[in-house]
Write a structure and sequence with these properties.
260 residues, six-stranded mixed β-sheet, four-stranded mixed β-sheet, 2 domains
């Protein structure tokens, strides 16, 4: 995609793609162009067998995403900030098989926080923060924040943040386990690429099938999760990588994954 698009897609390394919300002049706030473009980015990366891990970040310094563009909402264009099936930003409720890592280069506020919560892992700048300030504006965090945040950090802390709209520092988020890697702001991209590389070093089908079960671990009962685990096992057992893993171990070499 060209440099003037609302969302940029860039191949960083083998099997790793970076998706960038490209509205730094508006603190990377979500408008209709961003929502449609993020939905297309999901579709594109899901369909591309060569993409194994996706990094999501915001352009510029200091703000990952400030959430919904309130100018769009006040102009009566709020419906365009969501896409059918994918929800807010064309992202938060999208069905994704591949792992997404949020590279939070500063503030993740309101819908921006909800976008980060919708990712599988988070790398954050140590000077950043997360917040769901919707109640300060007479709104609610209806794009997943109200139920994802209490699953990700201690319940009472989450309830306080939701009720007050106050910010949670990236450092404290790291201590609670919301953030996987906490690094200086200048190192966020490199740290995200390093984490993505660690994921991409593994068999991609096994990663996808594992995450498909793990993402539902807090929502389903053990019996359902056992069934999903068995289904995932049968899916990977049909792959060439299922044979390659043990073969590489026996031959004492690095596996050569094909994603097939």
């Amino acid at each position: 995609m060209g440099p003037n698009d609302a969302v940029l897609i860039e191949t960083l390394e083998d099997h790793i793609v970076q998706v960038t919300i490209n509205r730094p002049e508006a603190r990377n706030a979500i408008n209709a162009d961003v929502a449609r473009s993020l939905a297309r980015a999901i579709e594109q990366t899901e369909q591309d067998s060569g993409v194994w891990v996706v990094i999501l970040t915001g352009a510029g310094d200091g703000v990952f995403c400030a959430g919904a563009d309130l100018k769009e909402i006040s102009a009566g264009r709020g419906a365009g900030l969501s896409t059918e099936g994918n929800g807010f930003a064309g992202f938060v409720f999208a069905q994704r098989r591949k792992p997404w890592i949020a590279a939070v280069n500063g503030l993740a506020l309101a819908g921006g926080c909800e976008i980060a919560l919708a990712c599988d892992m988070i790398v954050a700048a140590d000077n950043g923060a997360f917040a769901l300030p919707e109640v300060k504006r007479g709104l609610i965090a209806a794009a997943g924040g109200l139920f994802r945040l209490p699953r990700a950090i201690p319940r009472h802390v989450a309830l306080e943040l939701i009720a007050t709209g106050d910010r949670l520092s990236a450092r404290r988020a790291y201590e609670f386990g919301l953030v996987n890697r906490l690094v200086p702001a200048a190192d966020v991209r490199d740290a995200a690429v390093k984490l993505a590389g660690e994921v991409a070093a593994n068999a991609p089908i096994a990663v996808r099938e594992s995450l498909a079960v793990a993402r539902q671990a807090l929502e389903l009962e053990d019996e359902s999760l056992r069934g999903l685990s068995q289904k995932a096992w049968h899916a990977i057992a049909q792959s060439e990588d299922f044979k390659e893993g043990p073969r590489a171990f026996i031959e004492k070499r690095a596996p050569r994954w094909t994603g097939a």
